[in-house]
Specification:
This protein has one domain: TIM Barrel (Alpha-Beta Barrel), CATH 3.20.20. It is built from seven helices and nine strands. It has helices at about 20-30, 50-70, 115-130, 145-155, 175-180, 205-215, 215-235; strands spanning about 1-5, 35-40, 40-45, 75-80, 80-85, 105-110, 130-135, 160-165, 185-190. Helix 6 (about 205-215) runs antiparallel to helix 7 (about 215-235). Bound molecules: fe (ii) ion (FE2).
Length: about 240
């Protein structure tokens, strides 16, 4: 399986605190059936210098990659989780933040940024710059007053969205997830793993839950979308 969202890089954000925890998380991922994983450290464009961010995460990534090469741990790839900002649609440096240098970008929103400006920025990013955003853990914005508009938008514009596997076990997200899974939105599953305690990988558990509650067809659709995107991003066959 492919995991599109994780904070496994050591000491770069609020994820793994050191290399020991990074390796522990990768072992847990392997046990969960994950074979390929995107390292997606938080990038907050208002607070952090882009070059500084890239140099820090690249060094952490190369170090972890070296330690995992020639092991049976999941293969790791570098990307980031970019927090939305108002001039996103006009930015010229987004390529450096894409997932494994692909045309896909993991975009984090807030409940308060969902408005027509966001929709214009996403369309400009995709249609003018050529980068398709993947909305990170869309269920987390369910209390935003324009959440319904966001769902309508991603559905109509075929913008892929990601769901945290662990959210299936959070009562608050029960209704939003039901709505999403019963819609035609392109849904991908990822872990957003931060540490051995905070949101540890549970893809298999979530997929079993989805199959039981929403049926095999629904589970297979999510697996297919996640695998398909994983292959596009990594250029590798995902089992
Ligand atoms: Fe995240």
């Amino acid at each position: 399986m492919f995991d599109i969202h994780s904070h496994i890089l050591p000491a770069v954000d609020d994820g793994a605190k050191d290399i020991k925890e990074s390796l522990e998380l990768l072992k847990m991922m392997k046990a969960d059936g994950i074979t390929h994983v995107m390292a997606t450290p938080h990038f907050y464009p208002q607070d952090t210098d882009l070059d500084e961010f890239l140099s820090t995460v690249t060094a952490a990534f190369e170090n972890l990659k070296k330690l995992t090469e020639n092991t049976d741990l999941p293969k790791i790839y570098l990307g980031c989780e970019l927090l939305y900002f108002d001039s996103l649609g006009q930015s010229t440096s987004l390529e450096k933040l894409c997932l494994n240098e692909s045309d896909f970008l993991l975009l984090e929103l807030t409940e308060h940024c969902i408005n027509d400006k966001l929709f214009d920025n996403i369309l400009s990013l995709r249609d003018e710059i050529g980068i398709t955003p993947i909305i990170a853990h869309i269920e987390r914005y369910c209390r935003g007053k324009n959440y319904k508009k966001l769902l309508k938008f991603v559905n109509e514009e075929k913008i892929p969205v990601h769901i945290n596997a662990a959210s299936f076990f959070v009562p608050l997200y029960k209704r939003p997830l039901k709505k999403l899974l019963n819609s035609d939105v392109t849904v991908l599953l990822g872990t957003d793993t931060h540490s051995c305690d905070l949101r540890p990988p549970c893809m298999t558990e979530a997929l079993n839950f989805i199959e039981k509650k929403y049926g095999t067809q629904c589970k297979n659709r999510i697996v297919r979308h996640t695998k398909h995107l994983g292959q596009k991003i990594t250029d590798k066959e995902i089992i």
